[in-house]
Specification:
single chain, about 160 residues, alpha+beta, seven-stranded antiparallel β-sheet, 7 strands, globular, binds zinc ion
Length: about 160
């Protein structure tokens, strides 16, 4: 995967380009048409205020510092289904990158608090076999770290759920 600013290769883990030092907001790139509102909730990773992003069908909390997202489970499924259908628009290089670089299951040892209720979120390997580690609050939905929304879509697009 390449940095969207300077095209240098991104490190295998993380979205901070080591050449230009910018964070690559891969989750945000998938939500371009959203309206932005201030949110009173804090990012569980950065402790900075989130933004509420609204599109016609979904409503989510977004951190512009780390590209993290909190989204209700039902809306998440809708978003994934919609984006996977746009598969032809995905960059084949990204797809190959995902296939060649299986995610590390052991990252993220610490638990994050849910931005809304502050309860510790459960840490789960998405669909048990994706290797994409997500955080879940039973009540408020799924927390995705920077780039994880894109990783999940790509995982579906390469048929990861059918293996
Ligand atoms: Zn860069
Ligand atoms: Zn953050
Ligand atoms: Zn919660």
């Amino acid at each position: 995967m390449k940095c969207i600013y300077c095209s240098a290769p991104l490190p295998q883990k993380g979205l901070n380009c080591s050449y230009c030092n910018k964070l690559n907001p891969l989750n945000a790139k998938l939500l371009e048409s959203a309206e932005k509102l201030d949110s009173k909730h804090l990012c569980p990773c950065c402790n900075l205020n989130l933004e509420t992003l609204k599109t016609s069908t979904i409503n989510l909390e977004y951190c512009k510092e780390c590209d993290g997202i909190l989204i209700a489970e039902e809306e998440f499924e809708t978003l994934i289904a919609y984006k996977v259908n746009l598969r032809s628009k995905l960059n084949p290089h990204y797809l190959r990158f995902i296939q060649d670089h299986p995610r590390d299951n052991r990252k993220k040892p610490q638990f994050h608090p849910c931005p809304i209720c502050q309860k510790s979120m459960a840490v789960v390997n998405y669909k048990k076999q994706s290797g994409i580690i997500i955080d879940i609050c039973e009540e408020h939905g799924i927390w995705l770290d920077g780039g994880e929304l894109r990783q999940i879509i790509e995982w579906y697009a390469v048929g990861g759920n059918k293996k």
